[in-house]
Design a protein that fits this description.
Blueprint lengths: L4 H9 L8 E4 L2 H11 L4 E5 L10 E2 L10 E4 L2 H11 L3 E3 L8 E2 L3 E5 L3 E12 L4 E7 L6 H7 L4 E6 L7 H11 L3 H20 L2 E12 L4 E3 L2 E5 L8 H4 L9 H8 L3 E4 L4 E5 L2 H13 L6 E4 L6 H12 L6 E8 L4 H15 L5 E7 L2 H9 L6 E2 L3 H12 L4
Parallel strand pairs: 15-17, 17-18, 18-19
Antiparallel strand pairs: 1-7, 2-4, 2-7, 3-5, 5-6, 8-9, 8-11, 9-10, 11-12, 11-13, 14-16
Helix pairs in contact: 2-3, 5-6, 8-10, 10-11, 11-12
GO molecular function: ATP binding; magnesium ion binding; malate-CoA ligase activity; succinate-CoA ligase (ADP-forming) activity; succinate-CoA ligase (GDP-forming) activity
InterPro entries: ATP-grasp, ATP-grasp_succ-CoA_synth-type, ATP_grasp_subdomain_1, Succ-CoA_synthase_bsu_CS, SUCC_ACL_C, Succ_CoA_ligase-like_bsu, Succinyl-CoA_synth-like
Pathway: Carbohydrate metabolism; tricarboxylic acid cycle; succinate from succinyl-CoA (ligase route): step 1/1; One-carbon metabolism; formaldehyde assimilation via serine pathway
């Protein structure tokens, strides 16, 4: 689960992290009030969307010379003018894709005198099960660009959860950023604060870009991006309360109500699979046959008829879907139950695109019988490769 920058900074400040003063604003009047409370002389008007690259983004409907989604201004009147221009408009960045995202809230922040910029992030290393720290002197840039062009400027080290942060971790970070004296002490203290917040809130990723040194030699988190482990949200109702559903795909929101693992993609073939690994393999083989998956969808090993029905409806709600591949390997989940779910869903929402079904495993024969006797126009598949080939041909009118 992702949250906005202003929310991330509020969470981090609970753990003592130094962030610039700022206030969220959902209207022009609130933006003006925030600027008046800050007092100036410099303000930063920041679009709040769940995507990076806001400063370099462009607003739809404005000319090519228009400013991006993060703007530095020097008066309350300028805050008002920019808020009027930004709120309610679609911002397109390299992370939003061409559709962009509508700006429904702003963050009005005090300006900062920046002397240096750094990159710093914490994330879970799946190979070691440690928290990995990534640091670079190239702050304010896309870390992907730094990794590609100057990988030697990125330093990575791990923190053992059994011990937490030790003084040598702080020294490693300070050396990576070229800090000494009091700034090195601040960096060590900051690392401890960020690590504590990361673990306490079950974060999946914490990115600070940039981390700045101000003109008076103070470390400040100028921008923060935080995502949380969705599997741990039951422990954090205060985090769940920060969820902004307007930033999420409506289909993904609906899927979460039924505990379905669903991610919308840009392809044309909808997938309904039980098991994350099998779902990934299904997506891969669709691409192997020259098409693109429209979604990742794992109905889970314990899927029942209601879940399958909901999953099918979600797939059909995507206007980009030109065909559907159902790939079920019955283990804990029984093929007959999943087949009933497919039949009921099709009867409720209708079937306007080709449907290929592959069933294997527990009660597979019974499941196939249910499908065959349903009267639905379904293409049967013998195995995964056969199913992928048939759905791609059907979508392209070659079947």
């Amino acid at each position: 689960m992702n949250i906005h920058e202003h929310q991330a900074k509020a969470v981090l400040s609970e753990f003592g992290v130094a962030v610039p003063r700022g206030y969220p604003a959902f209207s022009v009047d609130e933006a003006v009030k925030a600027a008046e409370q800050l007092g100036g002389p410099v303000f930063v008007v920041k679009s709040q969307i769940h995507a990076g690259g806001r400063g370099k983004g462009r607003f739809e409907g404005l000319g090519p010379d228009a400013k991006g989604g993060v703007r530095v201004v020097k008066s309350v009147d300028d805050v008002r003018t920019n808020a009027q221009e930004m709120l309610g408009r679609v911002l397109v960045t390299h992370q939003t894709g061409p559709k962009g995202k509508q700006v429904n809230r702003l963050y009005i922040e005090e300006g900062a005198a920046i002397a240096k910029e750094f990159y710093l992030s914490l994330l879970v290393d799946r190979e070691t099960s440690w928290v990995s720290v990534v640091a670079s002197t190239e702050g304010g840039m896309d870390i992907e660009t730094v990794a590609h062009d100057t990988p030697e400027k990125i330093v990575t080290f791990g923190i053992d959860p059994a011990t937490g942060v030790w003084p040598f971790h702080g020294r490693t970070l300070s050396k990576a950023l070229g800090l000494s004296g009091d700034l090195a002490k601040q960096a060590a203290r900051l690392l401890g604060q960020l690590y504590t917040a990361f673990v306490a809130k079950d974060m999946a990723m914490l990115e600070v870009n940039p981390l700045i040194v101000t003109a008076d030699d103070q470390l400040r988190v100028l921008d923060a991006k935080v995502s949380f482990d969705s599997n741990a949200l039951y422990r954090h109702p205060e985090v769940v309360a920060l969820r902004d559903e307007s930033e999420e795909d409506p289909k993904e929101i609906e899927a979460s109500k039924f505990d379905l693992s669903y991610i919308a993609l840009d392809g044309e073939i909808g997938c309904m699979v039980n098991g994350a690994g099998l779902a990934m393999a299904t997506m891969d083989i669709i691409k192997l046959y020259g098409a693109e998956p429209a979604n990742f969808l794992d109905v889970g090993g314990g899927a029942d008829e209601a879940k399958v029905t909901a999953a099918f409806k979600i797939i059909m709600a995507d206007p980009n879907v030109k065909g559907i591949l159902v790939n079920i390997f019955g283990g804990i989940a029984r093929c007959d139950i999943l087949a009933n779910g497919v039949v009921n869903a099709v009867k409720q929402v209708g079937l306007t695109v080709p449907l290929v079904v592959r069933l294997e495993g527990t009660n597979a024969e019974l499941g196939k019988k249910i499908i065959n006797e349903s009267g639905l126009n379904v293409i049967a598949a013998n195995d995964l490769s056969d199913g992928a080939e048939k759905i791609v041909k059907a979508v392209r009118g070659l079947a």
